[in-house]
Amino acid sequence: MRRISLRDLAAHKVRLILTVLAVVLGTAFIAGSLMFTASLQKTFDALTESTTKGVDAVVTADSPHSPLPLELGPELAGNPDVSSLNNAAETQVVVARETGDSDGGTETLQTGGAPAFVMSWYPEEDVVGPEWSIVDGDAPTGPDQVAVNTSAAESQDLSIGDELIVVDPNGRHTVTISGTYDIDVDGGGFVGLAMEEPSFIDTFTDGETTTLFSLEASDGVTEEQLTASLEAQLRELEASGVVDAGTYEVKTGAEYGEEQGEMINEQLSFVNYFLIAFGLIALVVGTFIIANTFSMIVAQRTREFALLRSLGVSSRQITGSVVLEAVVVGIIGSALGAAAGFGLANGIFAVINATGAGLPDSGVQVTAASLAVPLVLGLIVTVMSAWAPARRAGAIRPVEAMRSGDLASTSLRGRTVAGVVLTVVGIAAALASVFLDADTGPRASLVGVGALAVIIGTFLFSPALSRPVVRGIGSVIGLPFGPVGRLASTNSGRNPRRTATTAFALTLGVALVACIGMLGASMKASLSEMIGESVTADYTLTGPTGGAFPVPMAAMDDVREADGVGEAAGFGYVPVTVGEVPDGPEAEYAGSGVIDGNPEVTGGLEVVDGDLSLDRPGVIADATVAEEKGWTVGETLPLNVSLPDAPAREVGGVELLGTYEPHEILGETLVSWSALEPIATSIGAGNSMSIFSIFVNGDGSVSDQTLRTNLEDATSDYIVVQVLTSEEFAGEQAVLIDQMLNVLYALLALAVIVAVLGIINTLALNVIERRQEIGMLRAVGTLRGQVRGMIVLEAVQIALYGAVVGVLMGLGLGWAFLKVLSGEGIGVTSVPTGLVVTMVVGSAVVGVIAAAGPAVKAARTRPLEAIAE
């Protein structure tokens, strides 16, 4: 039987190619994901290793909000076990240059996601860490000069003497390139500006604190001896008050590098799981194709199997032969998928580096897991999908040799009843989650269980549903085509199992797209409504990418001085929790908003008690939160720096001035800028208590357009500032949602591609199976064009059926999820009408494309040869 199975595969290669391709697509995505993340891991391991090369020890702040005093540096440098010490802190910036146009335009240096930062410059003999040296020009001196890394100079076309505009959270700075330097770091793409240490501290830090010291050991001192010596010294400095206990950590250079690598790997693991999830979705969709293909193959080989049974071959041997074919298909598809995954990973790296990210060339890493996981998964999925058809093949009786046809003509009643019951249970579970009075987590889990039940139930009763629905669709779209349309409609309903299974692959893909599309549309609608109700200021000024980079603090004064401005308030965020913070796992790390100006400028702020003006040091709070915590207006509340990785640390107190109705933008607590300024250094915000938005109202002396122009002129020097209306501000935030949705749609396209392959495969095998029928039609006068049209219409009917069921399933489950998430800020349910119409129309186009090859093959059928078979 082994020889027969292998001979049959060799004789009918074409009919299994698309099945193999379905396995290839799913496993390629999984293999590529594993190779890509393994390669990224090695890349960043090499990068972190190279950045800590030559560093024997580091003294680092326990968190960015528990900084180290700069005066600690000279103390540590005086340790006899220390040879050299560097202040290794960096400040993230945006770098631009003037374009030279008459209008004084500027262009930002694009780094493709790599960082741009300013750091301290040290002479070559004093450097701790990767070696660097000036290769052209001179070392920087003073606050107006920087040296730039040679890789950035080449990629950004920078030359010695060029002026750069550097924007940090404090403001704008103009510097001149004095030279270029080479640094022994295994990475590119970044823009590293090095400035003389005193000038860097004065210009780009608060001048009092830092977060990292790198140290080199004296001759004969090991890393372990150095760290032990530093720890002993720091304990002594605690006693003298130079440094606070619990605000620092001492590590060897190797330990620090490993820690940084582990942090990156944790982030990469999410990417890995995310990509693998979509690969698994493609494989799940592929199971329907594989099952359908083997079902049709078994049906076509009825006589062959029956003849073998009559010659004494056992039922188990027949089943085993079909399983063996599935094993071969799985191995070939998975092996090709692993190879395709290697190409996919290379392609991803090529795209990333094309953006200028400049990742080190570590090569694509082919690990044992990246080969074994897709091979095992592909094999399991293929064999499981082919198991039911294999069992049916084994059940063929010898008498079946006298006839041929599809054996899958058993009653659908039991399957339909089970499917309807499961679907009803799933819908009931989803509805129960909507009306259940419980936390979001359990309700979302209930929706997930309901969704699974609905998907399985729909699959089970889909054959019974497909018969009337597909014929109904066929009668409508086939009406203009006369007899050919009626024939196509009849053919689509002849084998409801096959039609439903083929369509269900598309149903799953469309359902996921519809559900995610509905979630995205509702998020954007909710965001737009929230901003529309909460922000009524004439204009909102933000940094780029939805406020990811702050508005420079210096812009605040320029905005207030602009002609036509009545009021302006700068809003930011600090890691300070108002009120008592319990220790242990119950600790809450809420953080607080901070505002410079009158919070009522934002709009939508309704007072409940007290005063909301914040014209003096104080805090205002959401009235609901204040009531829950037992706060009263006039009470002095503690301010705590509190982070998940460190115990709460009280840094001061602040008076509760007033309470307000819940406000989506301002959050639970809002501290005045004047209350935080005296303690800014102690919370690590001396140089990073940043403004993320400035809300502006005009004084009525100029038109809205003139006010906008004045604001743009006032902030033009800062490059990163955008002036937006409330509608534009909402749209800017929605861009981030659209970017996320586009990534998801691109990944889900893989499942849709697999579904299209399923339709092609089914039609191709269908044409082979119906060869005699098509020959008879040609013999009685049916034209080639009519045969092509019939096959195309059948494909369109299947695709439309799958799309319609998928849209209904996706929108229904999406509605349930949105109702559950209504307490999390998604209060508006929006149906993405354009997306739904696109998917339905697109499914018809998919049907036409899928039918192109099989339709041409069917039209070329020679009547006499087909009838004679």
Automatic annotation (TrEMBL):
The chain crosses the membrane at residues 16-36, 273-299, 320-352, 364-388, 417-436, 442-461, 503-523, 743-768, 798-818, 830-852. This is FtsX-like permease family protein. Keywords: Cell membrane, Membrane, Transmembrane, Transmembrane helix. Belongs to the ABC-4 integral membrane protein family. InterPro entries: ABC3_permease_C, MacB_PCD, Macrolide_Exporter_MacB. It comes from Candidatus Corynebacterium avicola. It comes from the Bacteria. Residues 17-232, 499-654 form the MacB-like periplasmic core domain. Its main location: membrane.
